[in-house]
Specification:
The structure holds two protein chains of two kinds. Chain A is of the alpha/beta class. Chain A folds into two domains: about 190 residues, c-terminal autoproteolytic domain of nucleoporin nup98 (2-Layer Sandwich), CATH 3.30.1610.20; about 200 residues, 3-Layer(aba) Sandwich (Rossmann fold). Helix content of chain A is about 35%, strand content about 25%. A seven-stranded antiparallel sheet of chain A has the order 2-3-4-1-5-7-6. In chain A, strands 10-9-8-12-13-15-14 form a seven-stranded mixed sheet, with helices on both faces. In chain A, helix 2 runs antiparallel to helix 6. Chain A is elongated, with a radius of gyration of 29 Å. By secondary structure, chain B is of the alpha/beta class. Chain B has six domains: about 170 residues, Rossmann fold; about 240 residues, Metallo-dependent phosphatases (Purple Acid Phosphatase, chain A, domain 2, 4-Layer Sandwich); about 100 residues, no CATH class; about 110 residues, Dna Ligase, domain 1 (2-Layer Sandwich), CATH 3.30.1490; about 120 residues, D-amino Acid Aminotransferase, Chain A, domain 1, CATH 3.30.470; about 60 residues. Helix content of chain B is about 40%, strand content about 20%. Chain B is built from 30 helices and 37 strands. A six-stranded mixed sheet of chain B has the order 8-14-15-18-20-19. In chain B, strands 3-4-2-5-6 form a five-stranded parallel sheet, with helices on both faces. In chain B, helix 11 packs across helix 13, helix 17 packs across helix 30 and helix 23 packs antiparallel against helix 24. Chain B is globular and about 120 Å long. Chain B starts with a strand and ends in a 9-residue tail after the last helix. The chains are: A alpha/beta, B alpha/beta. The interface between A and B is large, with 70 and 63 residues. Strand 11 of chain A pairs parallel with strand 23 of chain B.
């Protein structure tokens, strides 16, 4: 909520001309979300500091009727966020455009500047602060706030007081802050529409194209609206430049924190698909289909005449409907596939009578005491001829340096099994429910710890099974 | 006068040419809604009752309506010509599908009369030839009607006979709803006369010289299979036949009885499964007895629906979709049950487990398949304990639902399938508990209506059920533990005092205005709601909750999630509670092995750690950092610019409020290193074996739970409370004073409850509790600076209606679930309520209330 800008350029009070704000006055600007105060804590020939203090009205903060409490108990009135960017662009509009009718040459001259931003949230820690500002030529110091000094065990907060120093045109400093503050915060208080691309291009002119973090800046500034991001990148990077897509791929690869999800998951789905094809399944269910990645592979194979996807997350099913473009499929294709909301904790007659069920990376999301229900739902009641199940191999976790020992690969994993644990469990089930089971490693196998993922294929064994 | 008697549940097919007077006949004898006419259906689909091109569609509609009505057990009359067998065939099929008796009434009216009637109607321009053709078809049909499957055929010749008809309805034979018993329902006897005599004696029947006198008002009810295999089939038959004749017993047939009857009637049957013994024993009887036996068995009705429909008895069981109906299939099911079509290793048919699917509200008592112990499953019970195979002869006393057994004196026959088999199932779980291991999704998804004792038909909307399914599946504890979820709680109406949002006066006024004189104010602890279920030991857990290997109890949150991530801590915590219960001997006091407690568990930070760090502490951190810097620059500016004063003062006051906010949440946080850092305040003793305690006052709950507390042990502590008479100014003032003291020393506030757990006012059940929160506490709800005059003014208008309606519905559902559990109902019935509370919680309501 507070930004100060100091210069030691002499006479320092020229800052008042650059900002179009008189150093002797306290000015108030009314904005949509509250008020902005501009004043000068110090103003002399050697050193001049201007302060922009935002006073955000909390009542205006509540969006959409206020469904959760965090809209009321909210950090927004105190932090440097997109509100500050909007205030900058309104209160210092001329300065941001480089217009200064009294000192036109000064607006075009790099001068020594120091900007201090309080309560700046950095979702990405101090490292991200350095990665964003240092390539632009700033020297940066950051002081992180503790979450609560009375509870040191709670650790540190995401908020910093950040001081940036550099010799720059004031216009450049303001543009950098305008773009990068919401990027650090990774949030916007307003709807991100296509005019945001234009704003980003305008304020990023002359620096964003060369910034090494262009991908992250674009993605976060446009709040992960992928089509907008592509639009922006296409305009920033020459269309002829062949490596635009490569940049994307490279960056995606970097973002994948723990397991190399793209390739491992593709291998996993590939193995499931191959098995389903091999057994000649025609009617298949994907239990825990999520956003439908396996379903989209199944749809491409005419062998699968009837496909049912089930997930416990209604939101995931909506995303699957979009991603698979279900509502645009031709009728013949459309009638091959169905999505239902359901749960593996409840028996469900809709799941009966299928040739095969795929249960990909699902079982590890279930609480161990609930496994017994899951087993009966699948193997006793749904009882498909074949069940293909995959789950991580816990032994392999040591191979990922970024994964602390004893931690699971995903926050929602309730357990991760070693190969022996999975196989013992699977064999117990096979015996109890009359299936035969075989196992397959997924991903590159290590001599000691095995493959990163493991698969069990259960086939209904008949009376003597 | 011609008397026609039809069953009160039937499909009545009128047959007659156009103009024969079917519609008039139907109007005379049936309700307008009972009659489905093909003309009317033609009109429905085509706007023209005579559009013959629409006939096919019209009959589709007619058949659909008929199916829906029959499914609901509604007598239905088909008003169409129905002169061709083709047209009747489909109706017979529908009647069979829904087990309705097909009845036909033929109006055989001369061509001339029909023709003249049609002539009088402007919309009918049939030629004489049409009517003649219809009459020809009708004549051809008359002989075949019974063969086609009609169980009653009435042919009315001429206008006069039609006009003279007196139509009466009578209940189906299986309908004995007006017979309320009480009954002693006796399982498969199979000629075990001696055991039957001792069982009847055990049940209090006086037996003298073959004269059986029941205890006053009671009646015996035999579930069939009186005969075969055992040593004294004729004696058993004589006894039962005389009791039925005397009106002291009812009897339904078993498959063995039926086969014996067929054999006695001279039909070709295989003389197996003990029939030979019966036949041999009957040879020794007087001639004529065999005919009496055959007539007796022939007269038996396949099953009975008794006691206002609350009790159904049938030899091999009865599906809900068949109970109280009549068809060959119903009789087959009653005698033999249903098989899957597969056979087991002994070559015996595998039975379809209809009881596992049973969802009906009526109790079903049956026999047929010998089992070692009678067990309840979804309100059904098999009481054939295989007396003839050396087991026991068992009776179920109804409505007491007590089982009475006498052991077999001998093993009279060897069962085909091993009797008393080694149980192939988890140790010690009942059939119901095993069945309840997996709930059926059809019992929770979609829009549902839940009928509760406190409130009729609570609606759970589909979108809310969707949300609940995800939470229940991904995060909840084993549903067998989830017998109750607490309702949300409404705050008091907004206070009229200028600087407060909540004050006790409004809560007192609410109860006073609704006619409740006495309330209890309980200190509101700022922790997290916790439901604690604690049992004496793991055996008690298995026996009552059907849970194995999950310790001696559970602690879950208001949304059904496990309270503790640390299983060892939970176990230690439960042990401590268990020991406290033992010390207070609540086990003995309530004759129970388990208790369910509604509690607050502190500190808040134990469960809300993430919320605290991502939200409460984060706002505090950002705010204090920002305020600190802002005040510094404002301070610096003041030295040379006087214009800044007002702004500086405003920020000083804002900084003060922010600090108060930080202090407010800090009070409810402390680090939990061990059990000793946890504090549990139980405030409701929800239920113990066989009962809920919602019929007690809150004072009783406070006093009972105080027994759990030992001085010096902070882990379990008693909630402070104060009784207030809301018709007495002084008493109210004392209550207000108490609240002010609590909140000024940092307390969250208090909860005002009517003295009775369940209190009703003019418009039904009242809010079970109203919270009155303190000013400082509300900072963590409404925001750090909410008390600033400009803000509080905007916050004052808040609507409580949605919150209060939600609280009541959740309360009714919560109590209902608890009561169903106390009554030992199947888990799905308990789960329905708990699931409902969770679903309602996803309704959008202002989260600050």
């Amino acid at each position: 909520m507070l930004l100060t800008i100091t210069t030691t350029h002499q006479p320092a009070t020229d800052l008042g001309y650059l900002l179009h704000k008189h150093p002797a006055r306290v000015q108030v600007f009314t904005l949509a979300f509250g008020q902005a105060h501009v004043f000068y804590p110090e103003a002399n020939d050697e050193r001049c500091t201007t302060a922009l203090l935002l006073e955000i009205s909390p009542v205006g903060l509540v969006r959409g009727g206020g469904i959760t409490l965090n809209e009321y108990v909210n950090d927004r009135p105190y932090t440097a966020s997109s509100f500050l960017s909007v205030a900058l662009s309104q209160v210092f509009r001329s300065a941001m455009s480089g217009i200064c009718k009294d000192r036109p040459e000064l607006a075009d001259t790099p001068i020594p500047l120091e900007a201090k931003i309080t309560a700046l949230p950095s979702r990405g820690g101090e490292i991200l602060l350095h990665r964003l500002f240092e390539p632009l030529g700033y020297t940066l110091t950051a002081e992180r706030y503790p979450l609560d000094s009375a509870f040191p065990a709670w650790g540190e907060s995401a908020y910093f007081t950040v001081t940036l120093t550099a010799t720059k045109r004031l216009q450049d400093l303001l543009s950098h802050l305008y773009v990068l503050i919401p990027v650090l915060d990774n949030d916007k208080h307003y709807y991100v529409g296509s005019d945001e691309v234009e704003k980003l291009l305008r304020h990023g002119e002359g620096w964003l194209k060369e910034h090494p973090e262009i991908e992250l800046i674009t993605a976060r500034y446009l709040k992960y609206q992928h089509s907008l991001k592509r639009e922006a990148l296409a305009q920033l990077v020459d269309v002829e430049t062949p490596d635009a897509e490569e940049t994307v791929a490279k960056h995606d690869a970097e973002e994948i924190a723990i397991e190399d999800k793209i390739s491992l998951h593709q291998q996993r789905l590939g193995a499931v698909l191959a098995t389903l094809k091999n057994i000649g399944a025609r009617r298949v269910i994907d239990l825990g289909c999520g956003e439908g990645r396996l379903l989209s592979l199944l749809l491409k194979e005419p062998q699968f005449a009837e496909i049912l996807g089930m997930d416990v997350s209604h939101r995931a099913l909506e995303m699957a409907t979009d991603k698979l473009r279900l509502n645009q499929l031709p009728p013949k294709q459309r009638e091959r596939i169905n999505l239902i909301h359901g749960s593996l904790m409840y028996r469900d007659s809709r799941l009966s009578g299928y040739d095969a069920a795929a249960i990909v990376e699902v079982v590890e999301h279930l609480d161990p005491p609930r496994l017994a229900a899951f087993e009966r739902v699948v193997f006793e009641f749904a009882r498909p001829h074949t069940v293909i199940m995959t789950t991580p191999n816990a032994e392999y976790n040591v191979k990922w340096e970024s994964l602390p020992a004893g931690k699971f690969r995903h926050k929602d994993h309730r357990f991760e099994w070693t190969r022996a644990e999975f196989q013992t469990w699977a064999q117990g089930i096979a015996e109890r429910f009359g299936y035969n089971v075989r196992f397959l490693p997924i991903g590159e196998e290590d001599a000691v710890v095995g493959a990163p993922s493991q698969m069990g294929v259960f086939v209904l064994g008949g009376i003597n099974g | 006068m011609t008397q026609i008697t039809i069953p009160d549940f039937a499909l009545v097919v009128l047959v007659g040419a156009s103009g024969s007077g079917k519609s008039t006949f139907a109007r005379t004898h049936f309700l307008p809604t009972e009659v489905i006419s093909s003309d009317f259906c033609r009109g429905l689909v085509s706007d023209d009752e005579n559009d013959q091109a629409a006939t096919q569609d019209a009959f589709d509609v007619l058949h659909t309506i008929t199916a829906k009505r029959l499914n609901r057990m509604k007598l239905t009359v088909i008003d169409a010509t129905n002169v061709q067998q083709e047209a009747r065939k489909h109706l017979i099929k529908l009647a069979r599908e829904y087990h309705a008796l097909p009845v036909t009434i033929v109006l055989d009216i001369p061509d001339r009369v029909c023709f003249e009637r049609n002539q009088q109607r402007p919309d009918r321009n049939f030629g004489m030839h049409v009517i003649q053709r219809q009459r020809r078809d009708l004549k051809n049909s008359l002989r075949s009607l019974e063969r086609e499957g009609f169980r009653h055929v009435f042919i009315l010749k001429g206008e006069e006979e039609v006009a003279a008809v007196q139509l009466e309805r009578e209940p189906l034979w299986n309908n004995r709803k007006t017979d309320h018993g009480p009954f002693d329902i006796i399982g498969d006897v199979h000629g075990c006369y001696d055991e039957l005599i001792s069982l009847l004696s055990e049940l209090g029947y006086q037996i003298e010289n073959d004269q059986v006198t029941p205890p006053s008002g009671r009646k015996a009810l035999f579930l069939g299979d009186l005969v075969d295999r055992g040593p004294k089939t004729p004696q058993v038959l004589k006894l039962v036949m005389s009791m039925v004749e005397a009106g002291t017993a009812l009897c339904i047939p078993g498959n063995h009885d039926n086969k014996l009857m067929r054999a006695l009637r001279g039909r070709k049957v295989q003389v197996t499964h003990g029939l030979a013994e019966s036949l041999a024993q009957l040879e020794a009887e007087l001639p004529g007895f065999k005919t009496q036996v055959a007539d007796f068995i022939d007269s038996l009705v396949s099953h009975y629906v008794l006691d206002d429909g609350k009790l159904v008895v049938a030899h091999a069981g009865m599906k809900e979709s068949m109970a109280g109906r009549a068809s060959g299939a119903v009789r087959e099911f009653a005698l033999y049950g249903e098989t899957t079509g597969e056979t087991d290793e002994f070559g015996l048919p595998i039975r379809y487990n209809w009881a596992a699917e049973y969802r009906g509200t009526a109790t079903v008592v049956y026999g047929h398949t010998p089992i070692p112990e009678p067990e309840w499953l979804n309100r059904t019970i098999n009481i054939d304990t295989g007396c003839v195979f050396g087991g026991a002869l068992t009776a179920l006393r109804y409505p007491e639902k007590e089982l009475v057994s006498v052991p077999a004196l001998h093993t009279y026959a060897e069962p085909m399938r091993q009797f008393l088999p080694p149980e192939d199932r988890a140790p010690g779980l009942t059939s119901q508990q095993q069945h309840d291991d997996v709930l059926d999704i059809a019992d929770v998804i979609g829009k549902r209506l839940v009928d509760t004792r406190l409130m009729k038909n609570i609606i759970v909307r589909e979108e809310n059920a969707i949300a609940a399914l995800e939470v229940m599946s991904r995060f909840a504890v084993n549903p067998k533990w989830l017998i109750y979820l607490p309702p949300t709680m409404s705050p008091a109406e907004t206070s009229k005092l200028p600087d407060l949002l909540e004050h006790p006066a409004e809560a007192f006024a609410y109860y006073r205005e609704n006619g409740v004189p006495n309330v209890i104010c309980e200190e509101k602890h700022m922790g997290s709601r916790a439901i604690v279920i604690v049992c004496r030991d793991e055996d008690a857990v298995r026996a009552r909750f059907g849970v194995i290997g999950e310790g001696i109890g559970t602690v879950y949150t208001r949304t059904g999630r496990p309270f503790f991530n640390d299983k060892a801590l939970e176990a230690a915590f439960l042990l401590h509670i268990r020991d406290s219960v033992t010390r207070a001997d609540l086990w003995g006091e309530f004759e129970t092995d388990w208790l369910a407690l509604d509690c607050e568990l502190m500190p808040w930070s134990a469960k809300a750690q993430e919320l605290l760090q991502t939200q409460y502490a984060a706002v505090g951190a950002a705010g204090s950092g920002a305020m600190h810097e802002a005040l510094a620059v404002l301070e610096q500016t003041t030295t040379h610019n006087s214009e800044i004063h007002a702004l500086r003062e405003r920020y000083q006051s804002r900084a003060g409020l922010l600090q108060q906010y930080i202090e407010a949440y800090r009070r409810y946080c402390w680090e939990v290193h061990s059990l000793d850092d946890l504090r549990l305040a139980p405030f409701h003793l929800l239920a113990t074996e066989g009962k809920t305690h919602v019929d007690k006052t809150h004072l009783w709950h406070m006093e009972t739970l105080a027994k759990l507390v030992t001085p010096g042990d902070n882990r379990l502590f008693a909630t402070n409370y104060k009784m207030v008479d809301v018709t007495d100014m002084e008493s109210q003032a004392a209550g207000i004073h108490w609240w002010a003291e609590l909140t000024e020393s940092g307390g969250e506030g208090m909860v005002v409850k009517p003295l009775d757990f369940i209190a009703s006012g003019r418009r039904g059940v009242l809010q079970p509790a109203i919270k009155v929160r303190g000013r400082e506490y509300l900072r963590i709800i409404y925001g750090p600076e909410y008390s600033a005059p400009d803000q509080i003014a905007q916050l004052r208008s808040r609507g409580l209606r949605a919150k209060r309606s939600l609280a009541l519905r959740e309360f009714a559902l919560g109590i209902e679930g608890l009561e169903r559990f106390a009554r030992h109902e199947p888990l799905r019935r308990v789960h329905e309520c708990v699931f409902g509370v969770l679903a309602l919680e996803s309704e959008p309501v202002d989260p600050r209330l």
